[in-house]
Design brief:
This protein folds into 2 domains: 1-36, no CATH class; 46-112, no CATH class. It contains 2 helices and 5 strands. The chain has helices at 46-49, 89-112; strands at 8-12, 20-23, 28-30, 54-57, 60-63. The strands form 2 sheets. Strands 1-2-3 form a 3-stranded antiparallel sheet, with no helix packed on it. Strands 4-5 form a two-stranded antiparallel ribbon. A hairpin with a 4-residue loop joins strand 2 and strand 3 (28-30). Bound molecules: flavin-adenine dinucleotide.
Length: 116
Protein backbone atom coordinates (compact mmCIF):
# COMPACT_ATOMS: atom_id res chain seq x y z
CA UNK A 1 0.00 0.00 0.00
CA UNK A 2 1.22 3.51 -0.80
CA UNK A 3 0.14 6.57 1.14
CA UNK A 4 0.09 9.63 -1.13
CA UNK A 5 0.25 12.83 0.95
CA UNK A 6 -0.21 15.23 -1.98
CA UNK A 7 -3.80 16.60 -2.08
CA UNK A 8 -6.09 15.56 -4.93
CA UNK A 9 -6.97 18.51 -7.16
CA UNK A 10 -9.67 16.72 -9.16
CA UNK A 11 -10.95 13.32 -10.21
CA UNK A 12 -10.77 12.62 -13.95
CA UNK A 13 -12.88 10.53 -16.32
CA UNK A 14 -16.13 10.82 -18.25
CA UNK A 15 -19.04 10.31 -15.81
CA UNK A 16 -19.69 7.60 -14.64
CA UNK A 17 -16.21 6.32 -15.49
CA UNK A 18 -13.27 7.17 -13.25
CA UNK A 19 -9.81 7.12 -14.84
CA UNK A 20 -7.78 8.58 -12.00
CA UNK A 21 -6.87 11.46 -9.74
CA UNK A 22 -4.96 14.59 -10.73
CA UNK A 23 -2.81 15.68 -7.79
CA UNK A 24 -2.02 19.25 -6.77
CA UNK A 25 1.53 18.87 -8.12
CA UNK A 26 0.20 17.87 -11.58
CA UNK A 27 0.89 14.14 -11.34
CA UNK A 28 -1.84 11.74 -12.50
CA UNK A 29 -2.61 8.59 -10.47
CA UNK A 30 -4.68 6.02 -12.44
CA UNK A 31 -7.60 4.65 -10.36
CA UNK A 32 -10.45 2.21 -11.01
CA UNK A 33 -12.46 3.11 -7.89
CA UNK A 34 -12.32 5.42 -4.90
CA UNK A 35 -13.72 5.19 -1.37
CA UNK A 36 -14.58 8.45 0.33
CA UNK A 37 -15.62 9.26 3.90
CA UNK A 38 -18.52 11.56 3.10
CA UNK A 39 -19.71 13.66 6.02
CA UNK A 40 -23.38 14.27 6.85
CA UNK A 41 -25.17 17.61 7.06
CA UNK A 42 -28.60 18.05 8.65
CA UNK A 43 -30.89 19.21 5.81
CA UNK A 44 -33.80 20.75 7.72
CA UNK A 45 -33.77 23.51 10.33
CA UNK A 46 -36.37 21.80 12.61
CA UNK A 47 -33.97 20.51 15.28
CA UNK A 48 -32.14 23.82 15.47
CA UNK A 49 -35.33 25.85 15.64
CA UNK A 50 -36.63 23.61 18.45
CA UNK A 51 -33.42 24.24 20.38
CA UNK A 52 -32.11 20.67 20.20
CA UNK A 53 -28.47 20.31 21.12
CA UNK A 54 -26.17 19.10 18.35
CA UNK A 55 -23.10 16.90 18.68
CA UNK A 56 -19.99 16.72 16.49
CA UNK A 57 -19.07 13.26 15.20
CA UNK A 58 -16.25 12.16 12.87
CA UNK A 59 -18.92 12.02 10.12
CA UNK A 60 -20.47 15.42 10.76
CA UNK A 61 -22.79 17.31 13.11
CA UNK A 62 -25.93 15.45 14.21
CA UNK A 63 -28.75 15.93 16.73
CA UNK A 64 -27.80 14.73 20.21
CA UNK A 65 -30.09 11.93 21.43
CA UNK A 66 -30.14 9.47 24.32
CA UNK A 67 -30.63 5.69 24.06
CA UNK A 68 -34.38 6.23 23.53
CA UNK A 69 -33.82 8.80 20.73
CA UNK A 70 -34.94 11.63 23.02
CA UNK A 71 -33.24 14.91 22.11
CA UNK A 72 -32.17 17.44 24.71
CA UNK A 73 -35.63 19.02 24.31
CA UNK A 74 -38.32 17.18 26.32
CA UNK A 75 -40.91 15.57 24.03
CA UNK A 76 -38.75 15.92 20.91
CA UNK A 77 -37.35 12.71 19.42
CA UNK A 78 -35.01 12.29 16.46
CA UNK A 79 -34.10 9.21 14.42
CA UNK A 80 -32.03 8.14 11.44
CA UNK A 81 -29.23 10.01 9.72
CA UNK A 82 -30.33 13.18 11.49
CA UNK A 83 -29.30 11.71 14.81
CA UNK A 84 -26.46 9.25 14.21
CA UNK A 85 -23.07 9.29 12.57
CA UNK A 86 -23.48 6.03 10.65
CA UNK A 87 -25.77 6.31 7.60
CA UNK A 88 -27.58 2.98 7.34
CA UNK A 89 -31.18 2.09 6.50
CA UNK A 90 -31.50 -0.71 9.08
CA UNK A 91 -30.16 1.52 11.86
CA UNK A 92 -32.37 4.44 10.74
CA UNK A 93 -35.55 2.32 10.81
CA UNK A 94 -34.55 0.79 14.14
CA UNK A 95 -34.00 4.28 15.55
CA UNK A 96 -37.42 5.26 14.21
CA UNK A 97 -39.11 2.36 16.03
CA UNK A 98 -37.24 3.17 19.25
CA UNK A 99 -38.28 6.82 18.96
CA UNK A 100 -41.92 5.89 18.25
CA UNK A 101 -42.06 3.56 21.29
CA UNK A 102 -40.44 6.15 23.54
CA UNK A 103 -42.74 8.90 22.28
CA UNK A 104 -45.84 6.73 22.81
CA UNK A 105 -44.65 5.82 26.29
CA UNK A 106 -43.97 9.46 27.19
CA UNK A 107 -47.49 10.43 26.05
CA UNK A 108 -49.07 7.63 28.12
CA UNK A 109 -47.02 8.62 31.17
CA UNK A 110 -48.02 12.26 30.69
CA UNK A 111 -51.69 11.26 30.37
CA UNK A 112 -51.68 8.97 33.43
CA UNK A 113 -49.46 11.06 35.71
CA UNK A 114 -51.20 12.00 38.98
CA UNK A 115 -52.29 15.65 39.00
CA UNK A 116 -49.80 17.84 40.89
C1 LIG B 1 -25.76 7.20 -2.27
C2 LIG B 1 -26.19 6.55 -1.00
C3 LIG B 1 -26.14 5.17 -0.91
C4 LIG B 1 -26.54 4.53 0.25
N1 LIG B 1 -26.49 3.16 0.32
C5 LIG B 1 -26.91 2.54 1.42
C6 LIG B 1 -26.92 1.10 1.49
O1 LIG B 1 -26.52 0.41 0.56
N2 LIG B 1 -27.37 0.52 2.62
C7 LIG B 1 -27.81 1.25 3.69
O2 LIG B 1 -28.21 0.67 4.70
N3 LIG B 1 -27.83 2.60 3.65
C8 LIG B 1 -27.39 3.25 2.55
N4 LIG B 1 -27.39 4.63 2.51
C9 LIG B 1 -27.82 5.37 3.70
C10 LIG B 1 -29.33 5.41 3.81
O3 LIG B 1 -29.88 5.89 2.59
C11 LIG B 1 -29.71 6.33 4.97
O4 LIG B 1 -29.05 5.91 6.15
C12 LIG B 1 -31.21 6.35 5.21
O5 LIG B 1 -31.91 6.71 4.04
C13 LIG B 1 -31.52 7.33 6.34
O6 LIG B 1 -32.91 7.44 6.46
P1 LIG B 1 -33.53 8.72 7.13
O7 LIG B 1 -35.01 8.48 7.14
O8 LIG B 1 -32.84 9.03 8.41
O9 LIG B 1 -33.16 9.94 6.15
P2 LIG B 1 -33.58 10.16 4.64
O10 LIG B 1 -33.75 8.87 3.90
O11 LIG B 1 -32.57 11.15 4.11
O12 LIG B 1 -35.01 10.83 4.74
C14 LIG B 1 -35.18 12.16 5.16
C15 LIG B 1 -36.39 12.70 4.39
O13 LIG B 1 -36.72 13.97 4.93
C16 LIG B 1 -37.04 14.81 3.84
N5 LIG B 1 -36.87 16.19 4.28
C17 LIG B 1 -35.72 16.88 4.50
N6 LIG B 1 -36.00 18.14 4.90
C18 LIG B 1 -37.35 18.24 4.92
C19 LIG B 1 -38.24 19.30 5.24
N7 LIG B 1 -37.81 20.49 5.62
N8 LIG B 1 -39.56 19.03 5.15
C20 LIG B 1 -40.03 17.82 4.78
N9 LIG B 1 -39.23 16.78 4.47
C21 LIG B 1 -37.90 17.01 4.54
C22 LIG B 1 -36.08 14.41 2.73
O14 LIG B 1 -36.57 14.79 1.48
C23 LIG B 1 -36.09 12.89 2.90
O15 LIG B 1 -37.12 12.27 2.15
C24 LIG B 1 -27.01 5.30 1.36
C25 LIG B 1 -27.07 6.68 1.24
C26 LIG B 1 -26.67 7.30 0.09
C27 LIG B 1 -26.74 8.81 0.00
Amino acid sequence: MTIEPTPIERLEGETPTLTGARLADGRFIPLKAIFVGASVRVASPFADSLGCEMVDTPMGRVVKVDAMQQTTQPGVFAAGDLARAASNITLATSDGMTAAHALFRSLVEEETAPAA
